[in-house]
Amino acid sequence: MPNIQINYLAVIFAAVAYMIIGIIWYGPLFGKQWKALVGLSDDDMKKMKMTPLQSMAGGLVAALVMAFVLAHDAFVWSDFFGGGVGRGIFALQLAFWIWLGYVATTQAGSVLWEGRPWKLFFLNASNTLVSLMVMSLIITYLA
């Protein structure tokens, strides 16, 4: 078992980047489309059980876990795949394969089993792909 070295500052930066991307993605960029696809009005959003601050705090905890696991994967996989390519290419490949193997396949279940529209899948999945790529770049360059 390798002695895994994680830069916790990089994990924090990556988690914050994930949150910023999500705020922009589901706010000014695609907020109206997302609300329409999930069937929420502005009034529905105001009636949510959690306050926006509580939702953001929960999202930050989830982002920290994701960034920590991504940092772990980057360290372990760098021995196998990182040697032949530059850091940037390695980071993007790592993010893509994690996204394709775990995220996209899991999120596809919302279409297959819950009857959600494919547009919503692509909106959510592309947000996660972009987020993972940025997080992976931060983690690999600050490692």
Automatic annotation (TrEMBL):
One matching Pfam family: DUF1761
Top-level taxonomic group: Bacteria
Keyword annotations of the record: Membrane, Transmembrane, Transmembrane helix
Transmembrane parts of this sequence: 6-26, 55-77, 89-113, 120-142
Alphabetized InterPro entries for the sequence: DUF1761
UniProt-recorded name of the protein: DUF1761 domain-containing protein
Origin species: Candidatus Buchananbacteria bacterium CG10_big_fil_rev_8_21_14_0_10_42_9
Phylogenetic classification of the source organism: Bacteria, Candidatus Buchananiibacteriota
